[in-house]
Amino acid sequence: TFDTLWWQAGRYIEILVETQDEPLVIERFALTETRYPLEMQASFSSDDPRLERTVPVLLRGLQMCAHETYFDCPYYEQLMYIGDTRLEALVTYIIQSDDRLPRKALDMFSASRMINGLTRSRFPSRVRQTIPPFSLWYTGMVYDHALWRGSPDFIRSLMPTVRGVLDAFLSYRNEQGLIAGPPGWNFFDWAPEWSDGVPPDGDFGANAAINWLAVLAFGWASALEAWLGEPELSQRWERYAAELAQAVISAFWDPSRSRFSDDTGHTCASEHAQVLALLSGRLADEMREGAARSLLHDADLTRTTIYMTYYLLEAFRLMKNPQAIFDRLNLWFDLENHGFKTTPEMPEPTRSDCHGWGSSPLYHYFATILGIRPDGFGFSRVRIEPLPGSLSHLRGRMPHPLGWIEADLRREEDGLHGTITLPQSVTGVFVDGDRQVELREGSQEV
Question: Is the pLDDT of residue 3 over 80?
Answer without folding.
Answer: no
